[in-house]
Amino acid sequence: MKKLLLFDCFGVVMREVAPYWFRRYYTAEEADRIKEEMMHDGDVGAIPDDELYRRLGKTVGVPGDVIRREWEDLVIPDQKAVALIRELKSRYRVVLLSNAMSEYLRYALDKCGIADLFDDVIVSAEVKLVKPDPAIFRLALERAGVVAKDALMIDDVQKNLDGAKSVGIDGYLFRSAAGLAGFLASDEGKHT
Fold it and tell me: How far is 153 from 35, CA to CA, in rounded Å?
């Protein structure tokens, strides 16, 4: 039986934001390239949120405060995932482990009314580490006081699960709350 469930935020607990926003302004090829180039500095906390919005705005000719509002408007919780996590809290420690800008993630949790849902929130920009770096998973285990074999990473990105696996944490590739519920109910199923 696992003791700790590590949840990714965007794409699991909430709808993805960056892909929607980037595809609003760029072709798919441009979006992927620019997202990769621009988001890392914000995710690792090398620049504040406002600077990232300013940089993004500069590429599309829109003020940074407008970009901030656009990103804020795209925050939508996955209500089924949130309900499942509320159920799971009675049996597991639940931790949010997200690659994200600090202010933005904290805003999103408050907007969705789920800031209290997690036993801990680990934001890449705050700890200066990003998934799939094994160090961020070791940090999550240390903060939770749990060994790797007792943890499960739930993420919608396979390379992040591979990073977790490199330190001994099993992974579940998230596609739906119902799928995760079934996986956990079936003696944790097969691990990725």
Answer: 24
pLDDT tens, 32-50?
888 888 899 999 999 999 9
Neighbours of 116 (CB within 10 A): 7
d(CA 68, CA 50): 8
* Secondary structure class of 130 (helix, strand, coil): coil
Q: Does domain 4-15+76-185 have CATH number 3.40.50.2300?
A: no
Q: What are phi and psi of 133, to 5 degrees?
A: -55, 120
What is the model's pTM? Answer: 0.93
Bridge partner residues of 173 (DSSP): 155
Phi/psi for 122 (5° steps) reads -115, 115
Mean pLDDT, rounded, for 136-151: 98
